[in-house]
């Protein structure tokens, strides 16, 4: 990041919030149906969920040196971070409504902030979410996002809803983000799967987003549901860049950052799920089944012990 021009008027956090967050996002906050009674610029947001809906909330932190590099394009970072945070709502089958951003900056770089704001604004418009508030402070470069959504009461998808006999599915292709990181490149723009998640409320039994890798995230689901997952390596959709790459299984199974959806559904739903994927233009692969168990995962034709990885974990 570059420091602000020392010849310019000093800028404090309130000016940054006004210029890069309140003003650019004002139209979305004021739009009819935004559900924001009081938004950015106040100590508390006042939000209005639709009648008969339950509130669904998730938080994510994106740290420089862990989730991104300071040299990464700020427009890319703004869209990637918000999309990644929203993927948790997609996995719950929620309608995304609002988000907050708390930003820690080691110094002021107004051009970088303008890019971050623009990238996040583009994603917010695509997702139909309004900025509800946040904060800016001095410190190590970090973005903390909280996303809020809603779903009809009792309809949200949970990790604990799967059962033995359910089929396991995954959207999109896996491993591309982790491979790009390993090769020193930022991943492609993360997919926004909100439409898919909302439609899965009536089809799927459980779902999770793939932020830390298929093994880690599906592991949360099967442990919560009291099942084992038996997957077939030949069915797992690989990102184009993985063709011929050694250790492709490591990137596809244990790499993170794809932000695709992994979900389960009763076996009789195959036709409905295939039709949904065709309608939305999203590739959905049937990659295995669940059996009675205690949260283990097996992948046919892959030695997971030799892989020696189970997804990204902080502090490991």
Note the main sheet.
6 strands, mixed
- Proportion of residues in extended strands: 25-35%
Count of helical segments?
10
Structure classification:
alpha+beta
Q: Total strand count, please?
A: 12
Order of helices and strands: HHEEEHEHEEEHHEHEHEHEEH
Q: Give the proportion of residues in helices.
A: 25-40%
Mean of residue pLDDT? 91
Q: Determine Rg (CA atoms, Å).
A: 20 Å
Low-confidence stretches: 3-10
Terminal Cα span:
29 Å
Shape: globular
Record the strand order, biggest sheet.
8-10-7-11-9-12
Structure report:
With 316 residues, the chain is of the alpha+beta class. 31% of the residues lie in helices and 25% in strands. It is built from 10 helices and 12 strands. The protein has helices at 13-22, 26-30, 74-91, 110-127, 176-182, 194-199, 214-225, 248-254, 270-280, 304-307; strands at residues 36-38, 46-47, 53-63, 95-105, 130-138, 142-152, 167-171, 206-209, 227-232, 261-265, 284-292, 297-300. The strands form 3 sheets. The chain has a 6-stranded mixed β-sheet with strand order 8-10-7-11-9-12, with helices on both faces. The longest helix is centred in the first third of the chain and has 18 residues, at 74-91. The protein is globular, with a radius of gyration of 20 Å.
């Amino acid at each position: 990041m570059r420091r602000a021009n020392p010849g310019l008027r000093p800028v404090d956090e309130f000016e940054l919030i006004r210029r890069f967050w309140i003003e650019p996002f004002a139209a979305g906050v004021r739009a009819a149906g935004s559900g924001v009674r009081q938004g950015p610029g106040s100590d508390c947001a006042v939000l209005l969920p639709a009648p008969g809906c339950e509130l669904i909330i998730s938080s994510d932190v994106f740290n420089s040196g862990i989730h991104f590099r300071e040299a990464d394009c700020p427009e890319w970072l703004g869209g990637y971070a918000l999309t990644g945070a929203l993927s948790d709502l997609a996995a719950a089958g929620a309608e995304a409504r609002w988000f907050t951003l708390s930003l820690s900056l080691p110094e002021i770089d107004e051009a970088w902030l303008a890019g971050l704001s623009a990238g996040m604004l583009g994603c917010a418009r695509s997702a139909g979410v309004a900025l509800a508030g946040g904060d800016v402070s001095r410190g190590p470069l970090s973005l903390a996002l909280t996303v809020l959504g809603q779903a009809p009461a009792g309809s949200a998808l949970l990790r604990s809803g799967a059962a033995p006999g359910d089929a396991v599915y995954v959207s999109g292709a896996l491993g591309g983000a982790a491979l790009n990181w390993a090769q020193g490149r930022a991943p492609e723009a993360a997919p926004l799967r909100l439409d898919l998640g909302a439609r899965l409320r009536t089809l799927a039994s459980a779902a999770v987003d793939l932020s830390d890798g298929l093994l880690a995230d599906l592991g949360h689901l099967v442990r919560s549901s009291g099942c084992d997952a038996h997957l077939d390596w030949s069915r797992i959709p690989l990102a184009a860049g993985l063709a011929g790459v050694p250790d492709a299984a490591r990137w596809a199974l244990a790499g993170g950052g794809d932000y695709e959806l992994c979900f389960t559904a009763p076996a009789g739903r195959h036709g409905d799920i295939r039709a949904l994927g065709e309608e939305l233009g999203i590739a959905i692969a049937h990659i295995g089944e669940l059996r009675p168990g205690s949260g283990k995962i097996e992948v046919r034709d892959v030695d997971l012990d030799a892989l020696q990885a189970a997804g990204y974990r902080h502090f490991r």
